[in-house]
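Researcher: Structure for this, please.
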Amino acid sequence: GLVGSEMCIRDSTKPHAQILISAAGPIAQLLLAIVVIIGARLGGFRVDTLIDWVNSTIALTSDNLVDPSPEVGVLLTFLLLPSISWALLNLLPIYPLDGGQISREICTLFSMSNGTRISLAVSFATAVGVAAYGFHRGDMFLAIMFGMLAYSSYQMLQRYSGQSGFGGGFGR
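Model: Predicted structure, token format:
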């Protein structure tokens, strides 16, 4: 269940409003990135986010653009890379990330009795997938962080279902 201030916020906020509240942070980060990209493009500068699929999706490396000075290029990259990557990562449907809270609200809109359980199962599966992706890519930070989130989601799912889960049955 929910604890502390999160419970107070959720109890006093309708699901649609809670979804908007949870999405506000990542959306603000993405809007900042868009404003910076538009500003750089209007200035005639090529932008490199260091995220290949983002660069190709929004055609950031057009031939008629020039490279900014090294200092400005570093500033743009260090502003855009975390803004885009953390916003997208934070929107994954993994609890307690914003995407996990959005997922919980959406699932409970469709099923009041099983919505939380479904969102925790989605959270667990997604976190396991991202952890496996991290291991496959050799990114141990990503693998460990999402492995821990997967374990946390698993524990919450087991508690919510009334079962003990891994490590919960010792000494009984």
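Researcher: Any notable elements?
Model: Residues 1-9 have pLDDT under 50 and may be disordered. The longest helix spans residues 15-42.
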